[in-house]
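Input record (Table S2, row 344):
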Amino acid sequence: MKFIEEDFVDYVKIFVKGGDGGDGAVAFLREKYNPKGGPAGGDGGDGGNVILVATSKKHTLIDFKYKRHFSAGNGEHGKGQNKHGKNGEDIIIYVPVGTVVKDAETHQTIADLDKDGASCIVAYGGKGGRGNSHFATPTNQAPRIAEKGKKGESRWIILELKLIADVGIIGLPNAGKSTLLKALTRANPRIADYPFTTLSPNLGILVIDNQTRVCLADIPGIIEGAHKGAGLGLKFLRHIERTKLLLHLIDISGDYAGSRISPDKAFKIVMDEMKNYSAELAKKKQIVVGNKIDLLSEPEKSEEIKKWEKYFSEYGLKFYAISAVTREGIHKLIEAILEELQNL
Ligand SMILES: Nc1nc2c(ncn2[C@@H]2O[C@H](COP(=O)(O)OP(=O)(O)OP(=O)(O)O)[C@@H](O)[C@H]2O)c(=O)[nH]1
Ligand SMILES: [Mg+2]
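Output record (magnesium ion complex):
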């Protein structure tokens, strides 16, 4: 298994244009036995629409960095013998689920494509013009007029990707949550040796074997009393309410910016705070991750790992020991994340 990082683009501006309608025709029936037949100009075809469709197969807007203009097909002009011009072809643009579409000028939201298969028309094609047969009147049996096709709608639109993270990283401040996000994805969050380095959630995409994409969210640290507003409070938990899996990160060396908190205590503090926020969130599937094993040396290291594996397994939880800095154990953790997500 290999994992790579991918260019992540979550905001683009593109130009969309519906096809123009074809013109209506001016023509008359000219048949052997009816040399002065009536008007027979066919209608023009309608222009095609530009349609956005959300797909779960895409996870970034990167394609739109290179191609920004999209035009649907024009309608064909009407023809003689009342032949209708062909309609222009629609153009379908696939965007990732979670794409919010806005008009670039007014900034009004046109659509929130939050489900697989959700779609919207962002530029309508123009209607085809009517041929001259529509314009015959009792006093004008041979009209020489027909309608022009209408121009297709055109505009610049903004595509904004609101990611819904699959995996949330939680833990006390300074546990190394942002360092882990950086180790797994191309995200480049602020990392520092003091609590509350992260002030708002960071997102990153983990790409496994070039096909599976997992969106991870790193949120600010949670401390005891957060439900009463201590530290940054619990408001950031709403960003991980829709995740499928939580990585509960614990500093295995027990050092929290000077004060010592053992892994079981650290785990309990965060769980109690989460329960205060939402019983449902606290019940979400978790993998416990003991970070900073590089700070331990043998034989203490193996003993600690065994001890905490056993401890958390009694709660039905898997425990993985890693170092987000040296990357030790990262590979196994990725396999475990993948397995859990596939089982869900
Ligand atoms: N030795 C060692 N240090 C680590 C490891 N992971 C993170 N650190 C260090 O721990 C400190 C905190 O790391 P962050 O990634 O900022 O921690 P955080 O959990 O995001 O912290 P907050 O955003 O404040 O909640 C930094 O000094 C990191 O360099 C690790 O595996 N080993
Ligand atoms: Mg952080």
